[in-house]
Amino acid sequence: MENRMIEIVAKNNNNVKLGLIPGHFATNHSHVNYFVDMTTTKTQYRAAREAARELAKFYAQKEINTILCFEGTEMIGAFLARDLSENGGGMNSGQDIAVITPETNMNNQMIFRDNLQKNIYGKEILLLMSSISTGKSLIRCTDCLQYYSGKLAGVAAIFSAIPEYNGIQIDTVFSMDDLPEYQSNIPSECPLCASGAKVDAIVNSFGYSKI
Fold first, then answer.
1. Do residues 72 and 39 touch, judged by C-beta distance below 8 A?
2. Which residue of 30, 52, 123, 131 is most buried, as measured by CB atoms within 10 A?
3. Are the C-beta atoms of residues 25 and 131 closer than 8 Å to each other?
4. Model's pTM, two decimal places?
5. H or E stretch at 23
6. Where are the domains positioned within the chain?
7. For residues 95 and 85, what is the distance between their CA atoms, to the nearest angstrom?
8. pLDDT tens digits, one per residue of 48-75
9. Which tens digits make up the pLDDT trace of 177-205?
């Protein structure tokens, strides 16, 4: 499928790019017509640094105590914490910011061990995700945050197909303005399924597995 990949560049930063593979893909919650490849952004030093730089612009004047990373965004989260802390004019200037990831237990519930809960309880938390398609994963993350008494300060994603969910604003590097042909549908309403097109791959935050 890689030979079908096209690349798009962030409007405000030529160093942040997304790979797009057209096709028919199944996620946990929906069927989509593009696999949005963020491998480079999540794993390469320069790309992660530049993506964090773009996201930091949304939070310079918001208090952030902890960045909660999902879907392999830890490197981006570390750069984001640095940018917020070292911004001389920002609210978080000179402040330490925790960067952590929840654990998933045998029941697929997100949990934090006792030694990490001090970074959540009563703290201003920024949720950092790689992509948001339907918003269902976001609600799972916010439910986890609420359980541990964290305060939601913001939601950031490299790409989101929706600008907000249940009143929660989503700040992004890439939006539907950058991917106007992107479609996400529940399986029963998938036009590709209706046309008889086979599913090319199962996708999640780690990547894709061909069928």
1. no
2. 52
3. no
4. 0.91
5. strand 13-26
6. 2-210
7. 5
8. 999 999 999 999 889 999 999 999 999 9
9. 999 999 999 999 999 999 999 999 999 88
